[in-house]
Amino acid sequence: MSDVTAPIIYLIDDDEAILKALRRLLETYGHHVDPYSSAESFLENHDPEAHGCAVVDLGLPGMDGLAVQELLVAESVERPIIFLTGKGDIPASVRAMKAGAVDFLTKPVNAECLLAAVDAALKRDANMRQEASVRHKIEQRMASLTAREREVLGCVVAGRLNKQIAAELGTVEKTIKVHRGRMMEKMGVRTVADLVRLSVATHH
Question: How far, in Å, CA of 113 to CA of 105, rounded?
């Protein structure tokens, strides 16, 4: 493997011929493909931390495609999914899209449509991972605050002035200024607007 961080396209279809054809197509365009013929084997072996997306047949025997999606969502695995179906099942496609599916393609799959959907899914995966990384960094900064600095942060974000914070926390304005300065420095921000933005980012 040339690049261990290359995104993985998890391909799940119980039809061996389709699995081979789609794998060949995706690999021709430089994608790293991990194929499975059942939902169960995919769920047992996939790496939830790996970058990438999943191309899932809706009508899998045993656990079907929607059940795979529901399980990943329940386990907080943010994996963009593209569904394939032979029936053009409208109610199922609506359910899948509402639950966050990237696309819903009918078989036989058009190569250009599949490649475009995979590109869109990989972009979504990269964006989600970047947002998660930013949230993690902010949470680390939050964790470095003392209990009092955290109280001051809450008050500042709520729009209170130093003297109001001092009255609320039972101390003097001068002390609040010191706590506020240290808190802003640890959070890596200079303005209240930036602090509010960081605070909102951690609650998405």
Answer: 8
